[in-house]
Specification:
482 residues, alpha/beta, 8-stranded mixed sheet, two-stranded antiparallel sheet
Length: 482
Amino acid sequence: MHITRRIWTQLAIFLVVSAIAFAVMAFGYIGLPGLLFNAGRYTVTVQLPAAAGLYQRGNVTYRGTEVGQVKEVHLTDSGVDAVLSLKSGIDIPSDLDAQVHSQSAVGEQYVALLPRNDTSRPLQNGDVIPVWRTSVPPDINALLDATNHGLEAIPHDNLKTVIDESYTAFAGLGPDISRLMKGTTSLAIGARENLDALTNVVDNVGPVLDSQTDSSNSVQAWAAHLAQITKQLQSNDTAVAGVLQNGPAAAAEVRQLFDRLQPTLPILLSNLVSLDQVAITYRPDLEQILVLLPQGVAVTQATIAANVDTKQDYKGAYLNFALNLNLPPPCTTGFLPVQQQRPPSDVDHPDRPAGDLYCRVPQDSPFNVRGARNIPCETRPGKRAPTVKMCESDEDYVPLNDGYNWKGDPNATLSGQPIPQPPPAAMVVPPAPAPPPIAAAYYDPATGTYVGPDGRLYTQANLAHTAQHLTWQAMLLPPPGR
């Protein structure tokens, strides 16, 4: 038989491919060097109380990833030792627990390595995981036997009834039960992701429960009051029913009222909102007014009804007519100079002078104690100043003088504060012309004749000595016939 060169080439290629495939299977998939010579691996012994179905070549996982296999399982005097062959290059903390689990209901046990921390040294060749750090699943045979004995203890007819009723109860609820199981699984996954928060809640729920225990009396009182309110609602059932029946109609009327007020009500509410900052700023003052108002009303009532239920004829407040004239004297410091003061007889209305005009004497002076210099600063408690600018700044109030300036310039000061001064001489308004003299008419008391401003002679009989019934009322009335 003659074999051609082409066939020899094909056979050589087939042998090379087969050799490569065998090498990949032996070294990559089977891990033959590790099985035969333990190359790239190290062994760790796990002490178990029982084999629990663990077998040779079972998987070993670390954080859900396969990291080795069970090399052998053999009996000892105190239990079972499982020798694990682990891959090198994967650092597994030595402070861990080893648990035997089952991948399915038919077996296929594997070893799960669960580290307690990631700061301990890695596992090394020859390490031993003691039995008190391991666990095995319960024996399925004992569980099945116990279930069988439990079912045998139940009468057959009753067990059939339970099964039939269970079918009737859950028939057709497969999708709902499926959603319930999925929701429960999602809830469990969420609880697992928020395990630290749940643990914190469990750890700190003690003080909350203690507060409930400490306030048990308050809770009981609240329950008693709630029961009383409920009883009152029950006794007034007719009135409550009337409110519920007439409530929608009343609400409709209120809505119609608001609709009719639509053009003006929003503007009013927006204007009220503008008072918000003012109310917030003056909140302490409003609170003080509300606190002192009842006491002030009581004092006023006591003053008005000072001698009620007494034998005195006069009922009412006591009055004191002691006149404290010019005590204390008026404050003239800080106002316009004398040259700029207007006479009280003027009836015009000029613009307000520039500058701040107020009594600029010491704040503890008896002059004008309720003046602008003693206005409390709302945003700076304890500080008093005449202007908002001075309140908001670090500047302190400085008086012009002590106010006892009975002669000279009342605004004489060394503090340098600006005070309105008289205008320059060129701007001084000339004084108004003097009014014409008052015309006087002399009369003869014997005859009652007098000369009027027009130079004519007049006679008024009631001015003569011979006038009868001359009274002050008659002097104010015109003579008869005129």
